[in-house]
Amino acid sequence: MPSYSEPPTPLRDDDYLYTSLETSSCDDIKHIQSYVKVSSKRNTVLLVVVLEFVKRFLIDSLRCFARSNGGLILDQYRAQIWPVLAHRLVTSAEGENVDDNDSLSFMSESYSSVASSLTQDTEDSLRKHPEWHQVELDVHRTLARFPPNISDDRRSTLQCQLTPLIIRVLRTNPRFRYYQGFHDVCLTVLLVCGAETAFEVCRSLAHYGPFRSYLLKSLEESVLKELEFLYVILSRVDPHLERVLREVRLGTMFALSWPLTWFSHSLNEYQQIVRFFDVF
After folding, report:
1. 142, CA 20 to 30 Å: which among 1, 207, 264, 266?
2. CA 132 to CA 126: how far, in whole Å?
3. CA angle 179–182–185, rounded 5-degree value
4. Same domain for 233 and 168?
């Protein structure tokens, strides 16, 4: 007699398959295969929902971790966490998360956009973009940006991936205009995340991150206005240095590449560069 004090043991998928194969005729094989497909899809969807819930619930903790001493520590962690942080960027205008869709739509849109981009954007179509030539020239000058321990073959592969990656990002908004320095941003993300994930991260940074205004406006209307706050910040942090810089009339052009490339063009150590990218 079954016990009513505890629930029955659930039947596992492999138990069901084993029992069915033992008791069913050959005519039922299609039914079994259909069950396995549905069950596998159900488990995959459930896993996606659970993982996305955890990521969203812990987003503040991930941000604190990224901004703490040492940052995200290893590129293996960055490759998993950067896409999450990029998708949950806070807009300066709204002061809230830019994506309020439910977990399933959030994940499905992300992966479908990657798939469609990789399948629809052939190299021939990308080469027709008016910015292709300039991007390609800048990419060829990125030799010094690669970590010293990277092989020549790996570097060549990444350079071949970088130009199409940038053009794909630019094509997501017809108003985007490439600026010299955006290739440094995309290269850093590509080195950490790989080509497919890098597209999603760079697209989020371009649409919702600090680089949006640089891609939409002229330098005079965007970054140069931001640099006007440099001396204001210095006056709070180091008043003596601020006075010296004003006295020699140094201006702000020396810091132009800092926001445009998120310091990746100015720093020489790879670990310093990715550490800065932890806090985007």
Report:
1. 207
2. 7
3. 170
4. no
Q: Are residues 56 and 126 in the same domain?
A: yes
Distances (CA, A) of 38 to 8, 41, 103, 104, 107: 23, 5, 20, 17, 19
Tokens at 149, concatenated: 């321990």
**Do residues 209 and 138 share a domain?**
yes
Cα 88 vs. chain centroid, distance in angstroms?
10
Q: Which residues of 207-224 are buried (b: 16+ CB within 10 A; e: fewer)?
A: bbbbbbbbbeeeeeebbe
How many structural domains compose the chain? Answer: 2
Residue 260 maps to a domain: no
**Separation between Cα atoms, residue 261 and residue 245, nearest integer Å:** 23
pLDDT one digit per residue (tens) for the chain, 280 residues = 443 333 333 334 444 333 433 333 444 434 434 444 445 555 566 556 655 665 566 788 888 888 888 889 899 989 988 998 888 875 444 333 444 333 333 344 444 444 444 445 777 889 899 999 999 999 988 877 888 788 889 888 999 999 999 999 999 999 999 999 999 999 999 999 998 899 999 999 999 988 999 999 999 999 999 999 999 999 999 999 999 999 999 889 999 999 999 999 888 889 999 999 998 7
Tokens 């955890």 sit on residue: 54
